[in-house]
Design brief:
The complex is a heterodimer of chains A (176) and B (578). Chain A has 6 helices and 9 strands. With 176 residues, chain A is α+β, with helices and mostly antiparallel strands. The chains are: A alpha+beta (176), B alpha/beta (578).
Chain lengths: 176, 578
């Protein structure tokens, strides 16, 4: 059981520096671990960036990798979480031919029921945005795929934790 | 050496600003960090800095290597023997990539280095310009930290940070890449030493309870064994370490990089662990009840098969790098922190003990190893010189005071097994990376950092030729290193494996060698070759007595093997004596 792969969401608070993405991705690459998704953005603290990654590895591997990530000079703190410990979302966009919106009445119902949103419509195509869990997006994809999708893209996972992370306190502690 | 200590403790700040070029700022940063020697090789993209070096040559000595890899290893040798930061410099492109092996070696062996590379002008970055290479990208996985400077104004802060990161906590190599336009650019220079980086905690806090738990395990142990590593040396914890083992009476074994932290002859020193280590500490690793690891990282060459490694023992791990805890071996008690501080605090918590019966086991197993291996290595009766007897002769002639700089392979294992160490920082070798070609340039750096110490380089005929061009550096700089090549006309360690595990199929391990004495003499280095036992003593004496550099080639038996040996994948207690 200990050696079973599990899905972990990794949150990394870092300085905002060129090259850090390379350093962090190299930690996974070197151990032959595939990163399922990756998102970088500013965090709640000014000047501090936040990476959110999803990986499928064993918990023992996860702990060691967290150690290696935290060892990087410009990493402030790294955490890993299982799904029940976080609130997470992914976002996606579909581009579909405009004529389908009128020819296939079903599409409007699908959009409504899935809580998706039409972002733009013009005479050639319309774009739908949907945020949610992976399964919801997968479902919407399957439903729309029947009619034909011109383009589809999904973002990496973004997540906040249920527990507090105390990064500000930690930054103060670094300065003694 | 003592001067830098004081400089390190001061916060040296240049009060006023002055308008200078980026390249002059580089030199001023190095001077502010107490650097008076650096190793390197010039080229297009670093020429402005070399131009400044020319103006500052009375303050800072640049040693021209014959290959950038030589410069990196020389800086490593310098750092390893002095505890100071070694500095290497190269141009962009091939100059920079040639440093990489040395940087990787420094990373895995925790050696503080600052490497400076020139880079093409910032307007050319990413254009595949002449001698452009993404050295920041290439060096990322093998540096503790790296940074590209494109504006002169970044230089003081980046250099201050680089030196701070390289030497603090668990040391390591740092690379600074500077575009050529940043070297030319003028700016208002002001230097302030780095006192901290907000996202970086070099030394983790030590939990008092972990120390108490460690002391309790040690005090209750009937058969404790200490394995120490380079952390004791890097942490300047030799005295504290000695006090701990002497009070608790614990047999103590070393990893290859931990060698020389206490004297070889210390009664509690039970030898080296690992693949070609001593019989007793390897076998008894699987018999001890408490294994105390101090500043070591359970490398696979130390542990053999992890599934059968010290399973019966409680594990206590003193470690500065939290990422090393539970990485390879699950610990029962981890004491995070600096070795010196932790051992100092541990001492009063320990009960005095002697563990006489337990010690006897080490002595009994030593006797077995002596009869089966050591006797034949050091006092051979058969024809053909052994590597061991050469080491023994060097021990005698240097009275165990020399720093031994070894390369990689059979001779390295023999050197580590048999060299007599009376002083700390006396075993300079490539441990983690196993870099052939390390020894000759590293010996140059070591001798320049510690001119009053005898520095004896020992290499095989294979590794010697990997950086043989550094004889030119020795000649030009007049570095009085003693160069010993143990020539068996084979890549001996690989040949040994071929003999034992590949049915003696000696694929590409036999070497047809040049006249090494003639080559040394070509560089005006005194040189001699011996191939008979009767000539060995006099030859070693002549080498040690020589004031300048000296080259000694010893023809040793062609197919000698290094034992004991833990075959790959075997357990430490399955160590073979023959």
């Amino acid at each position: 059981m200990k050696n079973e792969n599990k899905q972990f969401t990794v949150s990394i608070y870092t300085e905002n520096n060129i090259g850090l993405l390379n350093r962090i991705s190299a930690i996974f690459q070197r151990r032959h671990m595939n990163v399922e998704s990756l998102n970088t953005s500013p965090s709640e603290i000014e000047g501090v960036s936040r990476f959110t990654l999803v990986v499928n590895i064993t918990e023992s591997q996860m702990k060691k990798v967290i150690g290696q990530i935290e060892k990087q000079v410009e990493v402030i703190k790294a955490y890993y979480h299982t799904e029940d410990e976080i609130i997470y979302q992914e976002s996606c966009l579909f581009k579909i031919k405009s004529e389908l919106l009128f020819d296939e009445r079903q599409i409007q119902n699908i959009i409504k029921e899935s809580n998706a949103r039409i972002v733009t419509v013009n005479k050639d195509f319309f774009a739908i945005e949907k945020s949610g869990r992976k399964e919801e997006i997968d479902l919407l994809y399957r439903e729309l795929n029947v009619f034909g999708i011109m383009q589809f893209t999904r973002s990496g996972r973004v997540a906040v934790t249920k527990e507090e992370m105390r990064i500000s306190t930690m930054l103060k502690a670094f300065q003694h | 050496m003592k001067e830098t200590q004081t400089i390190e403790n001061q916060t040296k700040t240049s009060e006023t600003t002055e308008r200078i070029s980026g390249s002059e700022a580089v030199i001023k940063c190095l001077l502010a960090e107490g650097i008076d020697i650096l190793y390197g090789y010039p080229g297009g993209a670093i020429m402005p800095v070399y131009d400044e070096l020319y103006k500052y040559q009375d303050k800072i000595h640049h040693v021209l290597s014959r290959h950038e890899q030589g410069a990196a290893h020389a800086a490593q040798g310098y750092a390893r023997i002095s505890g100071k930061v070694g500095v290497a410099m190269a141009t962009s492109g091939p100059g920079a990539t040639n440093l990489i092996t040395g940087i990787a070696d420094a990373q895995i062996d925790s050696t503080p280095l600052v490497c400076i590379t020139g880079q093409v002008g910032s307007h050319l970055l990413g254009s595949d310009a002449f001698q452009e290479t993404d050295i920041v990208g290439i060096s990322t996985p093998v540096t503790k930290w790296n940074h590209q400077i494109t504006k002169a104004s970044e230089i003081p802060e980046v250099f201050a940070k680089a030196f701070y990161i390289a030497k603090s906590g668990r040391p390591g190599p740092v690379l600074i890449d500077i575009t050529k336009d940043a070297q030319f650019e003028e700016f208002d220079f002001k230097y302030e030493k780095c006192k901290g980086v907000r996202s970086y905690k070099p030394v983790p806090n030590t939990d008092e309870n972990s120390l108490k738990a460690a002391a309790k395990l040690i005090n209750n142990a009937k058969k404790p064994l200490i394995i120490w590593g380079q952390g004791v040396i890097l942490g300047k914890a030799e005295e504290e370490f000695k006090a701990v083992i002497e009070k608790a009476g614990i047999p103590s074994a070393w990893t290859i990089l931990g060698a020389s932290a206490i004297k070889t002859s210390h009664p509690l020193n039970v030898g080296m662990v690992g693949m070609h280590g001593n019989y007793a500490p390897n076998v008894l690793t699987n018999e001890c009840d408490v294994l105390i690891a101090i500043g070591m990282r359970f490398d696979d060459r130390v542990t053999g098969n992890l599934a059968t490694y010290a399973k019966q023992a409680k594990i206590v791990h003193f470690e500065i790098d939290p990422a090393e805890v539970d990485k390879n071996v699950k610990t029962d008690v981890a004491v995070l922190g600096d070795a010196r501080a932790s051992l100092k605090d541990l001492l009063p918590l320990l009960n005095a003990n002697s563990h006489n019966d337990w010690h006897q086991k080490f002595k009994d197993l030593y006797k077995i190893e002596y009869d089966k291996v050591i006797k034949n290595d050091l006092h051979p009766t058969k024809e053909g010189l052994t590597m061991g007897e050469v080491l023994k002769e060097i021990n005698i002639q240097t009275k165990g005071e020399a720093a031994i700089v070894s390369d990689v392979g059979q001779h390295q294992m023999i050197a580590c097994r048999y060299a007599e160490f009376n002083k700390t920082k006396s075993n300079i070798t490539s441990g983690g990376l196993g870099t052939m070609g390390f020894a000759l340039p590293a010996a140059i750096g070591a001798k320049m950092a510690a001119p009053n110490r005898e520095v004896v380089m020992i290499a095989g005929d294979g590794g010697y030729q990997m950086n043989i061009q550094e004889l030119g550096t020795i000649f030009q700089q007049k570095v009085p290193v003693k160069i010993v090549v143990l020539n068996n006309e084979f890549l001996g360690m690989v040949r040994q494996w071929q003999q034992l595990f590949f049915d003696k199929r000696y694929a590409s391990t036999e070497m047809v060698n040049p006249d090494f004495v003639a080559i040394a003499k070509g560089y005006h280095i005194d040189a001699k070759k011996v191939s008979e036992r009767k000539d060995l003593k006099a030859a070693v004496k002549e080498m040690i007595d020589c004031e300048g550099p000296y080259f000694l080639e010893v023809r040793v038996e062609k197919e000698g093997n290094v034992f004991p040996m833990i075959p790959t994948g075997a357990s430490v207690s399955d160590i073979r004596l023959e």
